[in-house]
Specification:
- This protein folds into two domains: about 60 residues, no CATH class; about 180 residues, 2-Layer Sandwich (Muramoyl-pentapeptide Carboxypeptidase, domain 2).
- It is about 35% helix and about 10% strand.
- The protein has a four-stranded mixed beta sheet with strand order 5-8-6-7, covered by helices on one side. A two-stranded antiparallel sheet has the order 1-3. A two-stranded parallel ribbon has the order 2-4.
- It is globular, with a radius of gyration of 20 Å.
- Keywords: Membrane, Transmembrane, Transmembrane helix.
């Protein structure tokens, strides 16, 4: 019986390690270290906090840097959640693209803030950023749409869809979810076509950007045409709630 209980404990801790690693990259290691302390949860929170701060200084050795989490300027992280989960890391070149976009938008539309969503984890190319199919090398970045009242439709930027016609069949399995159960939590906002169009034009004209993912119905609605703007496919996540671009 003792051996069985010990086995269950190992399995439980492995599951925690796996979940924390998938969600934050470094959280799993922090949990393993915390197991050596009596007050495990407090130890984990402290170790994770210190590790996350340390990642900011170590990431440049892996060719990445953290986008500013505590900023009230042109480029801001849309939710503290992305900072807490270490999902705000990009290459210096991508940081330059994002910064230039934010500056251009603030110049053309005074007071505009460009809000960052998922980027990448701080370390190692190829480490997946669930649930994305990419975002594993610091060269991809999602930003929120622009809204007339400067409040995102969704508290975290994703899943506040601008619905429109699609040719995609309703099949499973797929990441093309509509997250309808979250609709009651969405804010009453008005999609700002003018600023979103301007951001797409800026990105499509930036020679450092190779690809932009957007739903075809929004490309038509906004009247933006570029060979860089692509449809992500029917089995990937919808891209009518945010803009994805990559180097």
């Amino acid at each position: 019986m003792k051996a069985f209980i010990f086995l269950l404990q190992i399995l439980w801790h492995f599951m925690i390690f796996a979940v924390l690693t998938i969600l934050t990259q470094i959280g799993g290691i922090a949990w393993l270290v915390a197991l050596f302390f009596k007050r495990r949860i407090i130890a984990f929170l402290g170790i994770y906090f210190v590790s996350s701060l340390g990642a900011i200084f170590l990431a440049p050795h892996f060719g990445r840097q953290a986008l500013p989490c505590f900023s009230n300027e042109n480029l801001v992280v849309a939710s503290p959640l992305y900072c807490v989960l270490n999902r705000t890391y990009v290459t210096p070149e991508m940081a330059g693209v994002a910064g230039d976009l934010a500056e251009r938008m603030a110049t053309e539309f005074p007071g505009t803030q460009t809000r960052v969503l998922d980027a990448s984890f701080p370390f190692w190319d190829g480490f997946p950023l669930i649930p994305h199919l990419s975002h594993d090398d610091g060269e991809k970045l999602d930003i929120a749409f622009y809204y007339q009242n400067d409040q995102m439709a969704s508290p975290i930027g994703y899943w506040g869809f601008e619905d429109g016609p699609t040719q995609c069949p309703d099949v499973w399995p797929t990441l093309r979810w509509d997250m309808a159960w979250l609709a009651p939590f969405m804010r009453d906002t008005v999609f700002d076509e003018t600023r979103t169009r301007a951001a797409l034009l800026q990105l499509s004209q930036d020679p450092r950007v190779s690809k932009i993912l957007l739903e075809p119905h929004l490309e038509t609605r906004l009247g933006v045409r570029s060979n860089k703007i692509r449809f992500q496919g029917c089995r990937a996540a919808r891209h009518d709630d945010h803009i994805h671009f990559q180097l």
